[in-house]
């Protein structure tokens, strides 16, 4: 029987069933433990980046090449025919006639789904506007599972810009399936949007707003840090919150042993470099896991069995 | 019997939208562009209703609602019934039901939605939560309250 992801698109975490997500997760960890260089042998993958995102692109292209596949594509939409007004529908028809799968990054919300409707090969969404970035969420899940041995009933603290942070939204939406509990630490103006908390309510997941990072550190199994951008505030406002959402090693005294700190990277000053050498820091391993998460996606959509 | 059923003038052929929640008749007339030259429209406001106390009613002569129009109507007045009239008689009585998805009728209000400018039909998933109807775009996955979504 083919695996349930064979020839499927990976557009949105919400399209994936829990067994599909668990299959992806375990495949990623298997590929990390036992590297395979043959799973994409003879395959050509289209890497279509209509806006630059060097880290995501390199992570995907590394995944393809580590599995023995080849990549064609572009890294910046400015040089493509889209600038001349070509539709995504036409781009899909053409690139899918050349390749075995398409990885797409695009500034418009929903671009991956439009592309998939006209593509004859599977489409992987590498970020569509402010909407979805499923491989990022998968790598977060892989990392949480790897560090905790489970995804169920964990205490997840999220800190920083929870209003605009696509990664924390998707992660909360994914983790609600495993009944995790959440704590949100953010400036009031950057609080978690209600449509996310409503979804947590519907799923029966508990959440709370915490006023200090120290409180969250004592409570959490996972601390997911994101950056509060100065541009979102005027000077006076920023002075009030400055430093409140920055993490230093000295704050970690009461952390549980199993606490791991994650961050989608790049970081600026929200995690001080003195945290890097503590046993809690896990953001660099998290970035490495991005390659394994993407290897899992590619292997499963292009092979009946892995 | 017939006369008792409608307290506004009977029509020979056309559509009677009945059981519109009182006060919504005017909004529906506007939303659905039901006013066409040549088609007589009769409206009744705050008529007595057995089930809801009072109701609005719209009669349009010479027009039959297609599926799209019925879907649209369901979104705004799911309790309404649509009666198809031929030769002064009700030949079909349709109860509206909120559709699971609605296509082609509305345009996604998100200006950054990839559905604009592509050869695709708009598509929304209809959800009702806490007495409110919400539409989630199939493409950009953003959710809008019904009032926010406009005609395509
Ligand atoms: Zn949309």
UniProtKB/TrEMBL annotation, chain A:
EC number(s) per UniProt? 2.1.3.2
Q: In which residues is L-aspartate bound?
A: 84, 166, 227
Q: Which reaction does it catalyse?
A: carbamoyl phosphate + L-aspartate = N-carbamoyl-L-aspartate + phosphate + H(+)
> A Pfam family this protein belongs to?
OTCace
PROSITE patterns, per this entry? CARBAMOYLTRANSFERASE
Is Transferase set as a keyword in this record?
yes
Q: Which Gene3D superfamilies match?
A: Aspartate/ornithine carbamoyltransferase
Q: Which GO terms describe its cellular component?
A: cytosol
UniProtKB keywords: Pyrimidine biosynthesis, Transferase
Instruction: Give the binding site residues for carbamoyl phosphate.
Output: 55-56, 105, 133, 136, 265-266
What is the protein's known function? Answer: Catalyzes the condensation of carbamoyl phosphate and aspartate to form carbamoyl aspartate and inorganic phosphate, the committed step in the de novo pyrimidine nucleotide biosynthesis pathway.
Q: Belongs to which family?
A: Belongs to the aspartate/ornithine carbamoyltransferase superfamily. ATCase family.
- Designated name of the protein: Aspartate carbamoyltransferase
Species for this entry: Neisseria zalophi
Tell me the gene name.
pyrB
TrEMBL record, chain B:
One matching Pfam family is PyrI
Alphabetically sorted, this entry's keywords are: Metal-binding, Pyrimidine biosynthesis, Transferase, Zinc
Q: Does the keyword RNA-binding apply?
A: no
Please list the GO terms describing molecular function: metal ion binding; transferase activity
User: Which residues of the sequence carry a binding annotation for Zn(2+)?
Assistant: 108, 113, 137, 140
Matching entries from InterPro entries are given as: Asp_carbamoyltransf_reg_N, Asp_carbamoylTrfase_reg, Asp_carbamoyltrfase_reg_C, Asp_carbatrfase_reg_C_sf, Asp_carbatrfase_reg_N_sf
Cofactor(s) required, per the database record = Zn(2+)
- Please report the stretch or stretches of sequence annotated as the Aspartate carbamoyltransferase regulatory subunit N-terminal domain: 7-96
Domain Aspartate carbamoyltransferase regulatory subunit C-terminal: residue ranges: 102-147
Question: GO biological process annotations for this chain's record?
Answer: 'de novo' pyrimidine nucleobase biosynthetic process; pyrimidine nucleotide biosynthetic process
Give the co-factor note. Answer: Binds 1 zinc ion per subunit.
Q: Subunit comment for this entry?
A: Contains catalytic and regulatory chains.
To which protein family does this belong? Belongs to the PyrI family.
Under the heading PANTHER family, the entry gives: ASPARTATE CARBAMOYLTRANSFERASE REGULATORY CHAIN
Q: What is this protein called?
A: Aspartate carbamoyltransferase regulatory chain
